[in-house]
Give the backbone structure.
Amino acid sequence: MSVIEFDDTMLVNIKHIDKQHKKLIDILNKLRDAMKAGSGKEALEEVITDLAAYVEYHFKSEEDLFKKYNYPDSTKHIEEHKSYIENIGKFNEKFNLNKTLGLSVEVLNYLVSWVKHHIMEVDKKYSEFFNSRGVN
Ligand SMILES: [Fe+2]
Ligand SMILES: [Fe+2]
């Protein structure tokens, strides 16, 4: 299990958004560290709680920008956000039902694919649009 470090390839060049993405990577690494130490299950509650708060705050930040500047590709992007919110809800449900077998691995893999797919492919698409409008 290698640690994902926030680096320049993840930057969307909007300061407050980059800061929030870094927070997601902190949550991911917290879970990974706990799993390495054999306490993944114990860390899950905090990780799921942090994620629920993070998505609400972070997606609103992005979607506020979309609205303010009429970002043309917002519909599909917002749909993806909704699916992240739903899936975190499902993780929370599983956790509450004590279905924690394999849940740490599932959540961790999900967060890695979130960074690699959503941040590095989908989010990065808006950089140029916003940067060219003076948002950075
Ligand atoms: Fe994002
Ligand atoms: Fe996004």
